[in-house]
Amino acid sequence: MxxxxxxxxxxxxxxxxxxxxxxxxxxxxxxxxxEDKYYNRNIQRSVLIATKASYDLAQFHGIxxxxxxxxxxxxxxxxxxxxKPGARLQVGEVTLEISQNCTLCNSLAKVDAKLPKLLxxxxxxxxxxxxxxxxxxxxxxxxL
Length: 144
Known about the structure:
By secondary structure, the protein is mainly β. It contains two helices and twelve strands.
């Protein structure tokens, strides 16, 4: 039995050669987000989780970054950046294991030159898929 949820999924995204897609559902397996162009590239970095707090921080500093600008697959309303590698989250049907903090990406400078430095420790975290399934917008998030 899962305890109380720690948060909710706000938005879902995946990348294609033609840009970012904002679906109602993501399907994941042990190789990552099935429709994502990065599927099966690096299972340790197969899911990028970002929090709305990162976008709020950018907004506070006068940077208008649209959701998905951080490259996230999951945008959530819980700040997971304190979680250590090995921590597990249940999101919808999917169990994710935190694998590493997200490194800075120069592509963030395309949004605003100040964004990479501002979000140095607040861009997101990577997770690998432990159990496959689907994640929907508004799914609850549980810390296991």
